[in-house]
């Protein structure tokens, strides 16, 4: 039963090939420059500014005009247009340092949100700035949906891929994403675009319009973006997902030689659930393997192979695998305006506003009861044959399992409104000093409904129905025993309105019963963020090697979240998501100073040596004062080579949701690794007011090679290392159970509740895990040159992650090379060891062609599995994707363009997850959409 909510929409990516060594060689030859010879090239790092621009294009630091020792990757407007990027989330698949992220909707996390996540260390450790100012959280979890930022005016992105808290502020543990808008745009420009997959679905229309005009000292820029993604809510729409694969427990383990604990098998079906009901597997012998057909007829139930507590392969059980989501439905409109007033050459004022509204829809699974429904012998609808068996065996009750198909799939809808208003002034004063002050006010409303939900209490009351002797008709036992309950006895009207529920046979539940048990869980969150900041930058004096530059500043930030919920969620009455109300506020006071000291210029020891120092003091109202610092250096011994290194101490304190959110509950499949039984289990998630701030030690070091003998060529290599103490981690229920029972992490056992050997509840609340680390290196290369009357531009990016660990209770687990979604204990799951992209663009006389090759390494499905013991094959193969693009100018003002993503329609590798509707491809790294075509037009006057 689907809601009347009809706003729908969609997302992107697949193909094998290229091993890591080949990719590395190819990417080392790569790069970027402009697509047209008369336009400047997209920059990898720092670049000289046009004469009219007072700042350099890429800084990676608060000090203007300085080549930062921290690696910075830049993506320019030309590159965004050539790839037909309509959402910033698209670049996550093309930029190896970023981990792709989007929640499809089958959990209580924000639906459809795409969060920037550098190094796979978690989105909350990546600071997002818009025009150098902190961007507010767009949902109550503290996440920032990258797609809220309007694409129409984006001038460039700077990605600082190293610890940067001292320079930029708290939360910049793994780096910074700084998005710059074109606030001096002149004229009118717009675009219209349409795309769809090769399967005739996943439609994505989009349009944008921007206007800019200077008048009387003022400059006005305004833009609007519209985007719609039709989504794809059934993996059965893809041929690769039609085998109903799932990870099953193996009942033959460990008693049978050569058998593994788990088996990935096709035709996965529920072992004790059907659409009409089936007797529980632990029933007395005469009741085993019986199911209920049309009208409650009793039929035999055929079991398949690998029969476990939840799944089996083959047999008569129901399956929901086809309904596993690929991408949610999204519709978003965003507007931005900025008015600048240049009072003089040295003073300007500005005010800007951003408004974004997103409507998002996704569906989940149908309600399931895995052999847990208790049926009494005097049940009003019980078939006589079953009642006779119970009587003959002196049994008063038994249990059945059932898929509540009549109830329809759970669905989730979100209305997300983001408003950000800013004003400020900036200017210069004597001696070349620059200053700026700003105030920013953000208001966010996040309204979520989880519909087709089931009230557990009402369901149990309705199922326990008997025959009313006075009428001969079914009646709820509670209502028969207490026909006139008072409001005190029945405060929610559950008994007084009770409707008997017939569970025997598919389609047997009446509409009156569905109306009685069904409803909607609601979360209504209002968020506020106010930020006040001031910065001053200049050169107070010079050394023998040049001017010393300094930047100092301060920031005050206030945040508040008030989230309310519906009455039934307050008492955790719903079958699936029960959002919990919470409220909290905090304030943060920060002050920083950054210093660049030149120590050498054109000496016998080299051409230049600069030292970069930064320090920041941050005071959190919730956890006290912390200090961060950075020490960096740039050394250029010769023209062609520059060496750089940075050592920093970075911090992140828990956000309001992590501290104060209430206990939310949901049902998921948990496998007990001791008994090897998988059962649907209650899991709780929530905040922890006792969380301590995270502290990170980060190091980056590398070399930039720019040989004079090869004009237009540039290559960089950078090593990175992060070590996070007291890392705030949200572990899944399976992670906690595995940590407790398999890895002997005894501190996690407190979160697991047992009834004998059966796990009945897991509390997956946030904790300060002991330690998390990430290590690896980046390679980035660019080469632009004239060719055949045009210009060829090459660009390559590659990231190798050698280590991504978490240490808890003395046990260290490394998730580098883990690409599956199950069993990971890492701070944000696993990550492939290698990812890379290589682009080639050729432009000539208003026409351009481009190609992008993206490589995603394979790895382990689950790093905690022992191959041959836990699973037969723990390896996941790699994929290589090829994307093409073309553009042609019809006139000086009008351009047509087209793209084809995943040209060879490569299917994702098998990475099943352990949920009620198992996904064939649960990994976020591989394309699940398939070949996608896009066409569009742009104009600019």
Note the overall shape. Answer: elongated
Strand content: over 45%
| Largest β-sheet summary | 22 strands, antiparallel, barrel
Find the CATH topology: Maltoporin, Chain A
Membrane topology: Multi-pass membrane protein
Signal peptide: 1-35
Domain TonB-dependent receptor-like beta-barrel: 412-903
Keywords: Cell outer membrane, Membrane, Receptor, Signal, TonB box, Transmembrane, Transmembrane beta strand, Transport
Question: What is the fold's blueprint, element by element?
Answer:
Layout: H1 20-28, E1 72-76, H2 77-82, H3 91-94, E2 126-130, E3 133-134, E4 154-160, H4 165-168, E5 175-181, E6 187-197, E7 204-215, E8 218-229, E9 246-249, E10 262-265, E11 268-270, E12 278-279, E13 290-292, E14 298-300, E15 303-305, E16 311-315, E17 329-344, E18 347-366, E19 368-376, H5 384-392, E20 397-403, E21 409-429, E22 433-454, H6 456-463, E23 465-467, E24 474-476, H7 477-481, H8 511-517, E25 518-543, E26 546-565, H9 567-570, E27 582-603, E28 606-620, E29 624-638, E30 641-652, H10 656-660, E31 664-672, E32 677-685, E33 694-705, E34 713-725, E35 728-729, H11 733-741, E36 752-755, E37 758-763, E38 767-768, E39 771-787, E40 790-808, E41 811-814, E42 834-844, E43 847-856, E44 859-860, E45 875-876, E46 879-889, E47 894-901, E48 932-940
Parallel strand pairs: 2-5, 32-37
Antiparallel strand pairs: 1-4, 2-3, 4-5, 6-7, 6-48, 7-8, 8-17, 9-10, 11-16, 12-20, 13-14, 15-16, 17-18, 18-21, 19-20, 21-22, 22-25, 23-24, 25-26, 26-27, 27-28, 28-29, 29-30, 30-33, 31-32, 33-34, 34-39, 35-38, 36-37, 39-40, 40-41, 40-42, 42-43, 43-46, 44-45, 46-47, 47-48
């Amino acid at each position: 039963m689907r809601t009347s909510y009809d706003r729908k929409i969609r997302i992107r990516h697949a193909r094998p090939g290229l091993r890591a060594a080949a990719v590395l060689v190819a990417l080392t030859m790569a790069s970027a420059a402009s697509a047209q010879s008369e336009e400047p090239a997209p920059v990898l790092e720092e670049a000289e500014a046009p004469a009219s621009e007072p700042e350099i294009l890429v800084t990676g630091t608060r000090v203007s005009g300085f080549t930062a020792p921290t690696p910075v990757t830049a993506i320019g407007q030309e590159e965004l247009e050539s790839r037909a990027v309509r959402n910033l989330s698209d670049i996550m698949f093309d930029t190896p340092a970023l981990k792709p992220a989007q929640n499809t909707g089958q959990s209580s996390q924000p639906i459809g949100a795409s969060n920037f996540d550098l190094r796979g260390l978690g989105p909350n450790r990546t600071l997002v700035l818009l025009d150098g100012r902190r961007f507010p959280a767009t949902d109550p979890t503290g996440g920032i949906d990258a797609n809220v930022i309007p694409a129409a005016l984006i001038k460039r992105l700077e990605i600082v891929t190293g610890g940067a808290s001292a320079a930029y502020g708290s939360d910049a543990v793994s780096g910074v994403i700084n998005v710059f808008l074109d606030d001096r745009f002149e004229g009118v420009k717009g675009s219209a675009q349409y795309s769809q997959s090769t399967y005739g679905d996943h439609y994505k229309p989009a349009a944008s319009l921007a206007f800019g005009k200077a008048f009387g000292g003022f400059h006005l820029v305004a833009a609007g973006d519209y985007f719609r993604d039709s989504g794809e809510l059934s993996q059965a729409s893809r041929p690769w997902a039609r085998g109903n694969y799932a990870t099953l427990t193996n009942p033959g383990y460990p008693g049978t030689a050569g058998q593994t604990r788990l088996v990935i098998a096709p035709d996965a079906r529920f072992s004790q659930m059907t659409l009409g009901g089936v007797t529980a597997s632990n029933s007395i012998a005469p009741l085993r393997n019986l199911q209920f057909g049309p009208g409650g007829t009793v039929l035999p139930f055929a079991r398949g192979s690998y029969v476990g507590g939840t799944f089996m392969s083959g047999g008569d059980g129901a399956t929901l695998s086809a309904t596993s989501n690929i991408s949610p439905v999204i519709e978003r409109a965003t507007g931005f305006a900025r008015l600048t007033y240049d009072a003089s050459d040295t003073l300007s004022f500005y005010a800007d506003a951003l408004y974004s509204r997103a409507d998002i829809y996704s569906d989940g699974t149908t309600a399931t009861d895995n052999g847990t429904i208790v049926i009494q012998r005097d049940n009003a609808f019980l078939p006589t044959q079953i009642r006779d068996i119970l009587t003959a065996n002196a049994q008063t009750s038994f249990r059945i399992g059932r898929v509540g198909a009549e109830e329809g799939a759970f669905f989730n809808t979100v209305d997300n409104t983001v408003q950000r208003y800013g004003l400020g002034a900036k200017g210069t004063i004597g001696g070349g000093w620059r200053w700026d002050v700003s105030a920013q006010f953000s208001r966010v409303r996040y309204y979520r409904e989880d519909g087709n939900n089931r009230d557990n209490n009402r369901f149990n009351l309705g199922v326990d129905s008997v025959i009313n002797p006075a009428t001969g008709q079914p009646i709820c036992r509670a209502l028969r025993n207490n026909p006139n309950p008072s409001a005190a006895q029945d405060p929610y009207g559950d008994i007084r309105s009770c409707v008997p529920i017939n569970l025997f046979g598919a389609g047997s539940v009446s509409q009156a019963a569905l109306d009685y048990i069904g409803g909607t869980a609601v979360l209504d969150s209002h968020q506020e963020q106010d930020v006040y900041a001031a910065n001053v930058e200049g050169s107070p004096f010079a050394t023998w090697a040049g001017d010393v530059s300094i930047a100092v500043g301060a920031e005050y930030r206030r945040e508040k979240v008030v989230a309310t919920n519906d009455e039934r969620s307050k008492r955790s009455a719903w079958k699936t998501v029960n959002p919990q109300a919470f409220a909290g506020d905090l304030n943060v006071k920060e002050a920083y100073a950054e210093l660049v000291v030149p120590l050498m210029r054109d000496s016998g020891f080299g051409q230049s040596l600069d030292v970069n120092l930064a320090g920041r003091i941050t005071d959190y109202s919730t956890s006290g004062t912390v200090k961060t610092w950075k020490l960096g250096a740039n050394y250029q011994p010769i023209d062609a080579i520059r060496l750089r290194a940075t050592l920093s101490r970075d911090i992140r304190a828990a956000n309001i949701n992590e501290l104060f959110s209430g206990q939310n509950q949901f049902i998921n499949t948990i496998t007990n690794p001791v008994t090897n039984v998988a059962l649907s289990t209650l899991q709780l998630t929530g905040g922890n007011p006792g969380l301590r701030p995270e502290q990170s030690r980060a190091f980056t070091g590398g070399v930039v090679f720019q040989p004079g003998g090869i004009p237009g060529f540039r290559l960089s290599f950078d090593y990175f290392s992060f070590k996070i103490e007291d890392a705030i981690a949200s572990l899944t229920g399976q992670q906690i159970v595995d940590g407790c029972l398999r890895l002997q992490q005894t501190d996690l056992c407190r979160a697991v509740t047992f009834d004998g050997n059966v796990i009945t509840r897991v509390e997956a609340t946030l904790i300060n895990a002991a330690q998390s680390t990430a290590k690896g290196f980046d390679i980035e290369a660019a080469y632009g040159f004239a060719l055949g009357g045009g210009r060829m531009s090459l660009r390559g990016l590659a990231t190798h992650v050698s280590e991504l660990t978490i240490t808890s209770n003395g046990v260290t687990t490394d998730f580098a090379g883990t690409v599956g979604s199950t069993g990971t204990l890492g701070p944000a799951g696993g990550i492939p060891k290698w990812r890379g992209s290589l682009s080639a663009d050729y432009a000539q006389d208003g026409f351009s062609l481009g190609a992008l090759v993206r490589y995603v390494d394979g790895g382990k499905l689950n790093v905690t599995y022992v191959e041959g013991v836990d699973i037969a094959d723990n390896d996941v193969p790699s994929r290589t994707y090829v994307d093409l693009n073309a553009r042609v100018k019809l006139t000086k003002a009008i351009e047509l363009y087209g793209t084809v993503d995943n040209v060879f329609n490569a299917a994702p590798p098998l990475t099943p997850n352990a949920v009620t509707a198992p996904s064939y491809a649960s990994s976020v790294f591989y394309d699940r959409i398939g070949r996608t075509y896009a066409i569009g037009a742009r104009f600019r006057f």
